[in-house]
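Allow me, if you will, to draw on your knowledge of protein folds for a short while. I have a record of one protein: its chain in single-letter code and its fold written as discrete structure tokens. Kindly check, if you would, that the fold set down in the tokens agrees with what the sequence suggests. Thank you for your consideration; the sequence and its tokens are set out here:
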Amino acid sequence: MDGVVPLRPAPDGVPAHAVQANDAEGATRRPTRDEALAAVRTLLAWAGDDPDRDGLQDTPKRVVDAYEEWFGGYAADAAHELSRTFDERNGYDDVVMLRDIDVESHCEHHIAPFLGRAYVAYKPTGRVVGLSKLARVVEIYSKRLQNQESLTAQIAQAIEDALQPEGVAVLIDAEHQCMTTRGLRHKQVSTITSRFTGVFKTDAALQERFLRMTQRG
């Protein structure tokens, strides 16, 4: 899985993705669920509240459950999602594009959400992939701790590697809550990142066409 720390063989009964490398001195196991629950309790107490009061007693469980959902991309493989392709194109040789794919990710600096839309296109050379798989690739990489620049590049590279198209174009437009709810607190500021490969990089007219296609109306 691109962008993921290499995994060690897991002990019996532990999923392979649940053990990750630590440093040159050796690998450490993934903390247990109970340890994660205790860590949330520690953060609640550090914030100044009482983890044992009625409103917070189930919060550690809810937070750990949320983390399993928010960061489910670590247990998924984009290459596998793109491995099933089709050659029934009936002579189609133009751009394939998905617009307005939801992006729900968390910045790796503050673990704060950033939310937006992704626009993904490729120009096939031979085989094509199911459209839902492109959206799934965006979801897989989004559901990891990210910065938007890396997320954009990872999506493009996965499609490039799997399909070997004439070119790939990816654009993400997102708002970062680490910027809107803390620090500078600038509201409604979006970040736009893009990645172009192949003909989308070398053909200015095609790149401009892609950018126009990201717009509605």
Helices lie at 33-47, 59-70, 78-81, 131-142, 148-163, 177-180, 199-202, 204-213.
